[in-house]
TrEMBL record, chain A:
Keywords in alphabetical order: Signal, Transport
Domain of life from the UniProt record: Bacteria
Biased composition, class Basic and acidic residues, residue ranges: 421-435
Any Pfam family matching the protein: SBP_bac_1
Family: Belongs to the bacterial solute-binding protein 1 family.
The name this protein goes by in its record: ABC transporter substrate-binding protein
Signal peptide residue numbers: 1-31
Segments for region (Disordered): 406-435
Organismal lineage: Bacteria, Bacillati, Actinomycetota, Actinomycetes, Micrococcales
Keyword Signal annotated: yes
PANTHER family: ABC TRANSPORTER PERIPLASMIC-BINDING PROTEIN YCJN-RELATED (PTHR43649:SF34), ARABINOSE-BINDING PROTEIN-RELATED (PTHR43649)
TrEMBL record, chain B:
CC annotations in GO: plasma membrane
Main location group: membrane
UniProt GO BP: transmembrane transport
Similarity comment: family membership: Belongs to the binding-protein-dependent transport system permease family.
Cellular compartments annotated: Cell membrane
Protein name: Sugar ABC transporter, permease protein SugA
Origin species: Nesterenkonia cremea
Alphabetized UniProt keyword annotations: Cell membrane, Membrane, Transmembrane, Transmembrane helix, Transport
TM annotation in the entry: 25-46, 81-110, 122-144, 173-197, 278-300
PANTHER family xrefs: BLR7065 PROTEIN, SPERMIDINE_PUTRESCINE TRANSPORT SYSTEM PERMEASE PROTEIN
InterPro entries: MetI-like, MetI-like_sf
Pfam families, per the entry: BPD_transp_1
Length: 435, 322
């Protein structure tokens, strides 16, 4: 009988404690009231952006506080969420981590607060060429490059040797396709219907000195793609050969960057085009004991494969730019924070801890980078040679149509697919066809 | 004589009064819910119909144009997209519902006839798939058949046509087969439960009379049981058809519309949410809504499905009339 009576007293005590704690919190809040809070919508990473947010908050010394808010995992879903919020005039979008391909779409309707000239100047002083292009729309800098990404050709030394391929010289797509066939191994390419299809086809076309889109500034009804050309057909030929001959293995139609890495690490791995995250991931695999050290020792890298021998390739470009929402209540503070976030030292730190390469040239000079990432120089070269995907507000439609037409790989016909893709993109953008 | 008529009349008046009061009470009880339903369903539906008449892109809010029925024309003329999605949706609906009905009926019979001690646990066991969230069951089926992590290929590689290197989600027919199978697995319990309620309505007297007349098991089933639970069957079929027609989760997770498995709701999602083309997306949604209404009207008017009867309340009514 005494037990139930005791509980209320305990509860009352606890309640009193909670109330006094709340009072303390309230007074604490009162002291902080003057500090504006900036929300930074970040893409998922290994926690690096959160650390930078804390560091910059500390550096701001009470001028502002950065809080991070996590966006969905894949770029298209990030775009969907940001676009809906921007269109609705959400004032909490102070800083956004943007995939560069969606920058024009947000810049065109003035969803992004203009970058002050001095900030633009200071933050793009030594930005690598490919990355700078991706931050620009209508000849103006509309977002600030934060980090850049690119794909390298990763290969298993043992397979290259067996195939008799000289990896120090120039390597073409034909070379690696033949090598995979002769050694009975699989290529790590991205055959899953998704953004990686567009990344791939754009790189193949750009590597021949052509562009998918003639006039990126054109309004929707005038957008014309040029896939039905020599360059487009050559690109389709690569897709079709890999698909028809099964060079990507049986799981090609669900193979994304992750799956390609796993295939590459396995017994049938040979050559793979992929982002540098695979280096950190493979190292981690060895440390955890899920992978043999031999696999890691067998891995080497070089520049993205060429389409024609002698013509330098134009590797895919990715990364993240920072944008400030047009409806943000503190755009000036947000740009102060952006400057803090993209400083070369932080980019270096972010590369070392999260494996995402800098967009600033100076950030690569740090000696610790070469130690941790032996391929850092190749990455820098690749970003500099890289070609961004079409910079247009209608990128999503173009990309979706490309994905639709160029997957599955085995269904690609070099004669007809490029023409159909051009036709469908035009019809979709003129509003004559569903996607 | 006259007192008797007045008595009768008085009785009738009080009965009418009572009925009127009951109707009023009914409205008072259901009214608030009805108003809320109007607000949360009628308003968005009206908004969608209105939006479908505009060329409107979320990222180009200034370029909103009234285009009349142009969006609908675009949808209907996209033969290889819209009509294909419509066909796939109908195919999934018809196959899934037909198989669910057969298996569901068998399970209902099993539950109905099961020994009393087993009945409770049997019902629970059969209901488990229905209790699982669709997204979770879709992921489970996806991983089962996935070429990288699935066990189906390994376990069943001895079956002709299945090999360890088979990618189920790369071809239309194999992908649709997995999608339909997951639909069936998930929703058969629902049909089974509704049919069980229907079986309970079939009077034992009728069955006994049939037995006395020398009807065998099959004759009892087709001549007595099924005709007497027609209402329950129709309600089950209607509910499942409406649900299956709006299928989204399974396809979204397993193929995201790849390999020719795009269905109508995914098509609407693609236009409105992914492309941010609000006008075009609304048009697809409105068309889907009309289809669903048509199915319901055809079922209710054409096949005379009485929603109130199917839920088993007519068993109560019968007792009352007795």
């Amino acid at each position: 009988m005494t037990e139930p009576r005791r509980i209320p007293t305990k509860l009352a005590l606890r309640g009193a404690g909670a109330a006094s704690a709340a009072m303390l919190l309230l007074t604490g809040c009162g002291a902080d009231e003057g500090t504006p809070v900036l929300t930074w919508y970040i893409n998922p990473d290994d926690g690096g952006q959160r650390v930078i947010a804390e560091q910059c908050t500390e550096e701001a010394d009470g001028e502002y506080e950065i809080r991070t808010s996590l966006l969905p995992a894949d770029a298209p879903s990030q775009r969907e969420q940001l676009a809906r919020r921007l269109a609705a005039g959400d004032s909490s979008l102070d800083i956004m981590s943007l995939d560069p391909v969606f920058v024009p779409e947000f810049a065109e309707p003035d969803f992004l607060a203009p970058v002050p000239d001095d900030v633009a100047e200071r933050t793009t002083e030594d930005t690598l060429e490919g990355s700078l292009q991706s931050a620009t729309w209508d000849d103006e800098i509309v977002s600030v490059p934060f980090w850049a990404n690119t794909q390298l050709l990763w290969y298993r030394e043992s397979v290259a040797e067996e195939a008799g391929l000289d990896m120090d010289g120039e390597v073409t797509w034909d070379d690696i396709m033949q090598a995979a066939e002769s050694t009975d191994t699989y290529l790590g390419v991205h055959g899953v219907r998704g953004e990686s299809i567009s990344v791939w086809i754009n790189a193949l076309v750009e590597s021949q000195g052509e562009s998918i889109l003639e006039d990126p500034q054109a309004p929707a009804e005038d957008v014309e793609t040029t896939l039905d050309s020599e360059a487009g057909q050559q690109a389709a030929e690569v897709f079709s050969t890999i698909g028809e001959e099964g060079l990507g293995g049986p799981g090609i139609s669900s193979m994304d960057e992750e799956q390609a890495m796993r295939l590459f690490q396995g017994d049938n791995g040979s050559f793979m085009v992929n982002w540098p995250f695979i280096w950190a991931a493979t190292n981690a695999g060895v440390e955890e004991g899920t992978l043999d050290q031999e696999v890691l020792d067998d891995i080497a890298w070089t520049q993205y494969p060429q389409m024609e021998e002698g013509t330098a390739s134009a590797p895919p470009l990715g990364g993240i730019n920072l944008g400030v929402g047009a409806d943000s209540e503190h755009p000036e503070l947000a740009y102060d924070a952006v400057e803090c976030i993209v400083s070369p030292e932080r980019q270096t730190e972010y590369f070392l801890t999260n494996g995402n390469p800098p967009s600033s040239e100076a950030a690569f000079d740090d000696p610790s980078i070469a130690e941790e990432f032996p391929m850092a120089d190749d990455i820098r070269e690749s970003i500099d040679n890289g070609a961004p995907r079409p910079q247009t507000p209608f990128y999503n439609e173009i990309s979706e149509t490309l994905q639709d037409q160029f997957s599955p790989l085995s269904g690609v016909d070099p004669e007809t697919t490029p023409g159909t893709a051009d036709e469908h993109i035009g019809e979709v953008l003129r509003g004559e066809r569903l996607l | 004589m006259s007192t008797a008529t007045t008595d009768k009349r008085a009785k009738l008046v009080t009965q009418q009064d009572r009925r009127r009061q009951e109707v009023r009470l009914g409205w008072m009880l259901a009214g608030p819910a009805f108003v809320v339903m109007l607000l949360v369903t009628a308003y968005p539906i009206a908004q969608a119909v209105y939006d479908s008449l505009f060329s409107l892109r979320l990222t180009a809010p200034d370029e909103r144009d009234f285009v009349g029925l142009q969006n609908y024309l675009t949808v209907f003329s996209s033969t290889d997209v819209f009509w294909r999605a419509m066909l796939v949706t109908i195919l999934i609906t018809v196959l899934a519902v037909a198989v669910q009905l057969v298996i569901g009926f068998a399970l209902a019979l099993l539950m109905h006839r099961a020994i009393v001690q087993l009945r409770g646990s049997l019902r629970t066991a059969i209901l488990v798939p229905y209790g699982i969230i669709t997204v979770v069951s879709a992921f489970a089926w996806y991983y089962m058949f996935d070429i990288n992590s699935g066990f189906v290929n390994r376990w069943f590689s001895w079956v002709p046509g299945i090999s360890e290197e088979m990618d189920w989600f790369a071809e239309t027919w194999s992908a649709l087969a997995v999608i339909i199978a997951s639909e069936i697995w998930k929703n058969t319990p629902f049909i089974a439960l509704l049919l069980l309620a229907g079986l309970a309505q079939v009077s034992d007297d009728l069955l006994e009379a049939a037995k006395v007349d020398g009807a065998n098991w099959w004759q009892q089933l087709t001549r007595v049981v099924i005709p007497n639970m027609k209402a329950a069957i129709m309600v089950a079929v209607l509910f499942r058809t409406l649900d299956s027609f709006r299928i989204f989760d399974n396809v979204f997770i397993m193929t995201n519309g790849d390999a020719g498995t795009e269905v109508l709701s995914l098509l609407a999602y693609r236009q409105s949410i992914m492309r941010l083309e609000i006008g075009l997306g609304s048009a697809v949604s409105v068309i889907m809504f009309v289809c669903v209404v048509l199915i319901a009207v055809v079922a209710v008017k054409g096949f005379k499905v009485n929603l109130a009867e199917g839920t088993g309340s007519n068993a109560g009514q019968k007792k009352e009339t007795k």
